[in-house]
Amino acid sequence: MALNAVLFDFDGTLVDSEPLHFRVWQQLLSTHSIEFSEQDYKQLLLGVPSHQSTRLLIDRFQLDLSAKELQQQRAAILHARLSESSPPLMPYAQQTLVRLKQQGLALALVSASGRREIDRVLDAHAFADVFDTLITGDDIDRAKPNPDCYLAALKRLDLTPMDSIAVEDTRTGIQAARAANLPCLAVRNGYTPEHQLAQATRTFAHLGEACDWIVSKVCPGTYP
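Structure for HAD family phosphatase, as requested:
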């Protein structure tokens, strides 16, 4: 079966935004007199959608406010930081997207982040138009590891898991792709522990390596 589409995760896969999300949570929790380390972030929140993160943190730290209130506080800090600067792209991200597009592949962005947040980052790096479709947290009710986001992307592209492949950086993302019956490539990001990538079809050091592998499969049309 020929490969026709590549479906990309956003945070930590295309955009080096995990440090930003850590600092946002750290700043927010400090206003409630809670110390929150980078290791805490990796253990508790890496790959977890923000609306689930709020409930998790409220329970863990016994915060006296609702999930909606904590989410609103997080959003305010996040958008203030994004207005100052955008997180950088992951190594080889732009080259990968351009190269795959030149190969005639459809590209989708599949993320649990909100559309407003994603649009601000895409606009900052001027590559919003490269994607054939975007699925964000605003489009689905159940976040990763549920497969709904990937199934929605395939439906919009009018493709099947047999002719598509996902690219992820966390265990929850890989689980979502595999639950949608998609082969899934994992790209190391410096945050996700290696053992959490074990369910991926293949694992690469960076997007450039993953891109080389994908392109090598386009002409023969056989994968994984």
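The mean pLDDT is 93.
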